Amino acid sequence: MRTFFTIAGCVGVILTLSFVAIRVTSHQDGERDVFGEPQTAAQVALIRPRHELVAARLAAGDSTSFELCIGAPLVSPLTVEVWHRGDAARVTTEVIEGDRLASLNGLVNAQPEGACEALAPLELRMPGEYALAVTWADDPETPPPEALADVPLRGHVIGLRAISSLEKGSVVLALVLTLLALMAQLLKTTASGLPQELRKAKRSPWVTVALALGSLLGVMIATAFLPMRGAVAGLTSGALLAGAQIVAVLFLSESREQLALKRSRWIYVAPVIGVTVFVAGRLVASLIPATGVAPITTLVSWPSGMLAVAAIAVVVPVVEELFFRGLLYGALSEKSEALAIGGTIVAFSAAHLPQQWGAWGACAAVMLTGVVLTLLRRVTGSTVVCAVAHLAHNAVITWFALR
What are the extents of the domains in the chain? Predict the structure, then answer.
């Protein structure tokens, strides 16, 4: 029964993640982040029939944001319009004037590189090419006021496709199937273990650790050269890293005892521990300033990236626990418990450093998570408890991301 539920859970996870991968690709292909070329108002005035700053092809149902960017203060109001090029229909019109104009000019004065003013978000009803245009008079032939002629103008379009209920449900299904495969490890079997002649040969703990970390590092380096971009690259990297850890566990672990796949009464409070660690991590992260934007923060700013990270986040906890708190901890504990605790925490934190680089508060939160999960492994003697706590921790992160 244990083998059946393990295989069923793993196959289900693979099929679900395959569906999510297709949806992530679809999202990424439909996302738009288009900047027009900087032009002065005098140059824009020569564009006919409308003074267009930028255009982009968008799909029906897209959540779209249009922005007017300026490189110098505006001395007079400016009308901004969005047009559907297919039928020359005006979609929306807004006037940058009054307090809105003063606020935008204040930003420009404080930021030498310029500032942008966003129009009200639009949900498009028909596909096609949409353009952002500006005007300063009813007659398009009218030249711009002299004070406006030399002001640099630029348009910006962002088009997003919201994550559907089906896609969110797929992430939840992946979580349930992962939990199924994990809980299957607690089922009793009729076998008393592998025959002595089929057990893996005993090797030095240092060899096990070197092979495990070496393979993980090799895959981490290789993923930096993937011929992909954005969310698809993120999802592929996550899947490859998870695969590398699973392969290491399968080939390098010497027994279920080394992986600590056993029952513990702590499993009932593991979800509470995971949620508590999440809350504590958020607090720690808020206390430490960042010096840059973490790569994962940039990734999840788009629906495609958010869906990719959510799918990986509900699967990798089990893989990481088997690798870090199972294989590595088990090997290092043969030398000393202190070495096992310290080495596992350092390895876990270092493996997450590239995706959080620059956001040092997030790095500290990851380290806190590693400390708690490793101590939980020491106290309970069970990797399963750690995996359940880790799943609960990541489930909360995923819920906040997808709600």
Answer: 2-27+164-189+201-402, 32-160
